[in-house]
Specification:
Elements: H1 2-35, H2 45-81, H3 96-101, H4 109-117
The chain binds zinc ion (ZN).
The site of zinc ion has 8 residues, from helix 4.
């Protein structure tokens, strides 16, 4: 029983760390997006195009980070409900090694690969 609680603590801690890292990454990008005058002050057409590319890449990054945050929310909810570490699709246990590498994983590798192919989160 004690062993089980320790594993849960470990998982909670991993998720908490991941959430913190992500929050910092989002904050940095928000500041970068508002603060450094992207798109302002350039008049050369080539520079404008580069700025548009950069902006698009930043938006894509931002979206990925938000999706990640959503997954962490889900993982924390699952942890609270006791369903964490169980694949959402096939209901098999997700290997601890995968949870260490990807604390917000909600599927095993096989199901995640299949889900990604279908364009699911
Ligand atoms: Zn699965």
């Amino acid at each position: 029983m004690a062993e089980k609680r320790n594993a849960t603590d470990e998982r909670t801690e991993r998720l908490r760390r991941l959430r913190e890292e992500l929050a910092q990454a989002i904050e940095r990008r928000d500041i970068a997006g508002d603060g450094d005058g992207i798109g302002a002050g350039h008049h050369h057409p080539a520079e404008v195009a580069t700025d548009a590319d950069l902006r698009e890449r930043q938006l894509a990054d931002q979206m990925r980070l938000r999706e990640r945050q959503e997954r962490i929310d889900r993982a924390e909810k699952a942890l609270a409900e006791g369903t964490y570490g169980v694949c959402a699709d096939c209901l098999e246990d997700i290997p601890e090694g995968r949870l260490e590498a990807v604390p917000d994983a909600i599927r095993c590798v096989a199901c995640q690969t299949a889900a990604r192919r279908l364009g699911r989160l």
